[in-house]
Write a structure and sequence with these properties.
456 residues, 7-stranded mixed β-sheet, alpha/beta, globular, single chain, 13% strand
Length: 456
């Protein structure tokens, strides 16, 4: 009974997953007001519901405990997560207060760390072993630890072997595209191996009158993501001849020599007209709608972009392509890291209740739903959402590239000091504010930010 209820809620909250498309009529039926139902049947149904609620309350009396949970979810995804939390409360009597700061999540959490006033549990958004480790309780003794997939286990394990979060999903980031626009332009995503190939595709798309790469640059994260995606192929991937991984880590990285070519490539794309002209003022939603409605061919972001875009147009044909290499014969790649992961504050007043919630979230039935809500891949062994839209497209991409594809960790999390994500975006703004002249300013801006933070 519970599973049907959850799936109905997911259907109404997450319109983007094709498997759930046929659930809308069921959801609407369940939401039909009692006043519209047949009078003879309404009263017994109400009485039965009251009896069921009374039985549930007797089995799980209300608790005085209310756990504060900070999440990065917003909109329909937040509604779907709330539904899962409500079911947890119904089962255990433990209240859940979901806090969703949205775009201010990072700054809110930094403020709360500084004040020592942290939520009972929070989503670590990629920083469980670095920024948040000192505030989290190690969870190595929990039963679900043995179910974590090896592909994410190394990412959430610190050098001492501690795991501080229940990883519910893996977040791969690549390039999302509109299949109809690619077809109209004569572009085959499975044949794009290098950035030269990518630029040829952009030229063909541009010739059709569409925007090749749409960026919602009003949100600085989307500018930062351009560097997040492009930098590894130039600097740190295993096939980079003059590899700069160690130099980035030890503070000896030469920004002028090695970052300039990356900034120049983005500057050239701007001058060639590959980006939307309102890149610095376009919203995140504008990019999603452009992808969904066929106004923009490409959005460079996480695979969850497809889930969000399909909410605007469930009939859109969207796909995933690998990130190209700068070099002929180089490996294409996909960045990945923590998806939705929750850890508990080491000083929470309610450690047992927090562990109870984490066990609930890490269970087979719930963890796969959380991953699907956010358009990501389950992080626990034994569960899969291979029949969901995003996973189907991701698996197709992997099959297309085969051994030419490698998986890497997120660049900023692996090689840059904590807190530099925003600096990547701010420095990138220099390129788009000063077309043809912003490369030097971009490099100088990110170099100064790096030098300041690497010495802290």
């Amino acid at each position: 009974m519970k599973k049907k209820k959850l799936m109905a809620l997911l259907c109404t909250a997450v319109m983007s997953v094709s498997l759930l498309g046929g659930c809308s009529s069921t959801a609407e039926t369940q939401q039909t007001p009692a006043s519209e139902a047949d009078g003879a049947s309404a009263a017994p149904a109400s009485e039965a519901a009251d009896d069921e609620n009374a039985s549930a309350e007797a089995a799980h009396p209300a608790s005085d405990v209310v756990l504060e949970v900070e999440t990065g979810f917003t909109g329909d995804q937040l509604d779907a997560l709330q539904a899962l939390m409500d079911d947890f409360t119904a089962e255990t009597g433990i209240g859940i207060e979901l806090i969703a700061p949205g775009d201010d999540y990072d700054s809110v959490m930094k403020t709360r760390m500084a004040s020592g006033d942290l939520p009972d549990l929070w989503e670590t958004h990629g920083w469980s072993t670095t920024r948040y480790a000192e505030y989290l309780l190690p969870l190595n003794d929990q039963e679900w630890i043995g179910k974590i997939k090896e592909s994410i286990k190394t990412t959430v394990t610190d050098p001492e072997g501690n795991i501080y979060v229940a990883p519910l999903s893996i977040d791969p980031a690549s390039i999302c595209y509109n299949k109809d626009l690619f077809d109209a332009a004569g572009v085959d995503a499975s044949q794009i191996y290098t950035w030269d190939d990518f630029e040829e595709a952009c030229e063909k798309i541009l010739a059709t009158g569409k925007v090749p790469v749409y960026v919602g640059g009003k949100k600085v994260d989307n500018i930062a993501n351009l560097f997040e995606v492009t930098a590894p192929g130039f600097l740190t991937n295993e096939d980079v001849a003059d590899n700069q991984a160690q130099a980035l880590l030890d503070g000896t990285f030469d920004w002028d020599t090695y970052w300039t070519p990356i900034a120049q490539m983005l500057d050239e794309w701007q001058q060639k007209g590959y980006f939307n002209t309102d890149i610095l003022t376009a919203s995140d939603d504008a990019a999603l709608q452009a992808l969904a409605n066929g106004d923009g061919a490409i959005v460079i972001s996480g695979n969850h972009t497809i889930t969000q875009a399909l909410a605007y147009n469930p009939d859109a044909r969207l796909g995933i392509m690998a990130i190209p290499s700068p070099n002929e014969g180089g490996k294409v790649y996909v960045s990945s890291g923590e998806g939705t992961c929750y850890g508990m504050w080491k000083d929470t007043e309610y450690p047992d209740e927090c562990k109870q919630l984490l066990s609930y979230l890490a269970s087979d039935e719930i963890s796969v739903q959380v991953a699907t809500i956010n358009g990501k891949i389950p992080a626990m062994e034994g569960v899969s959402n291979d029949d969901e839209y995003v996973t189907i497209e991701f698996n197709t991409m992997m099959d297309n590239f085969g051994d030419d594809l490698v998986f890497i960790s997120y660049f900023d999390r692996a090689y840059l000091p904590s807190g530099m994500w925003n600096d990547l975006g701010v420095s990138g703004n220099e390129i788009f504010m000063n077309p043809g002249q912003g490369v030097e300013r971009c490099v100088e801006s990110v170099k100064l930010a790096y030098q300041e933070k690497i010495n802290q």
